[in-house]
Every structure is written in C-alpha cells, then in structure tokens.
Design brief:
mainly alpha, 8 helices
C-alpha cells in the first residue's frame, strides 16, 4: 500500500510558514505533488510545446504568492486557487501567441484574461482530467504496488484490453484482474481526493 504524502492543507500550512525557503523539503514535496497536475493540464489545454515553461512559471508565481502572504485559504480551496493560476498562465500564453501571430507587440502584463463561459467550463474539465491523469501517474509510478499489478492495470484499464486477454497474458484469473482494478482505482481515488482538498 502506498504512503500518501501530507494532505495539501498541511503542506500548504508548512509552505506558508516556510516562505523564506529554509525548509526545501516542503517545496520539493509540493512540486512532486502538483507538478504532474500542472503539466497534464497544460498539455490538455493545448500548451504542449510550452509545458515545461508553464509548470515553471506557475510554480514561481506560487512561491511569490506564498512569500507575499497573498494566499488566503479562507477564500476557497487550494485546488481552485492553483487551477486559476494555471489556467491564467495557459490563457496568457495562448493570447500572447495569438497577438504575436497578428504582428502585435504584447507587454508581459497587458494581456486580458477574459474567458468565455464555455471556454472556462472546458478548461475546468481539463483541470479535472489533469488531476486524474496525475493521480494515475502517481499510483503507477510512485507507490509500492507490485510491478505485475501495475502492468495488469495498465493493460486492462489504460490499454482497454479484454479481461480474458489480460488474465491470460499475466497468468492470473479474471477475478485477480478485477481485484487489481478495484484496488488501484481506490488508490487513485484516494490520491485524487487528496489533490482536491
């Protein structure tokens, strides 16, 4: 069974207390937890060529927010706060690219962030997909789950191979394949719920 890292609430409190950067482990843990979510979101939102830059810029903005004391947990969930910053970064990059393509010079801070409601809903859905993808990636790469179980899950769920084919390929019963799916799905759901807190 995997050891789930500190909940974001605890981690965020520790980060806020360590704004001087003295506790590097807190920031490393935060990066390990949220970098995949930000990365997946940037990819889903169409910023594939800028993914690394989006991740870096979002994390730099978060450090600035914590250092300035601008983050206020009483205003809402951290996931919403992080999603907003990430979404703004992706939109900002898209709008700057559009302006450059039209031959306009766009100063860094002069981009309008107005997003039509249907685009905002789509970006919210992509954020949820990014959280799900990050949770799957975490469970399948960073947990103590047996390699065979990970491979069975990948084949059955991610590759959508038939249960009988997966059972035969791995020398297990159909029941074992179902049990692996149930157990890994539960681990993924636990990790996703931690990201949403």
């Amino acid at each position: 069974m995997s050891k789930i890292p500190d909940t974001p609430v605890t981690l965020i409190a520790r980060m806020a207390a360590q704004i001087t950067g003295e506790d590097e482990a807190v920031w490393v843990k935060f990066f390990d937890l949220y970098q995949p979510v930000i990365r997946h979101f940037a990819e889903y939102a169409g910023a594939k060529s800028d993914t690394d830059d989006v991740v870096q810029d979002v994390l730099v903005k978060l450090v600035d927010v914590f250092r300035s004391g601008a983050y206020r947990p009483e205003r809402g969930h951290f996931r919403s706060f992080l999603a907003t910053i990430t979404r703004r970064e992706v939109i900002n990059r898209w709008q700057k690219a559009q302006a450059r393509a039209a031959g306009m010079h766009v100063p860094i801070d002069d981009v309008e962030l107005a997003v039509p409601p249907e685009a905002a809903a789509m970006l919210d859905a992509k954020w949820r997909l990014a959280q799900c993808a990050a949770a799957i990636e975490h469970v399948l790469t960073r947990t103590a789950l047996a390699q065979k179980s990970k491979a069975v899950y990948r084949a059955y769920v991610l590759e959508e191979r038939p249960i009988g084919e997966v059972a035969k390929a791995f020398g297990v019963s159909r029941n074992v394949v179902s049990q692996v799916k149930t157990r890994v799905d539960a681990m993924i759901a636990d990790f996703e719920s931690m990201l949403r807190d």
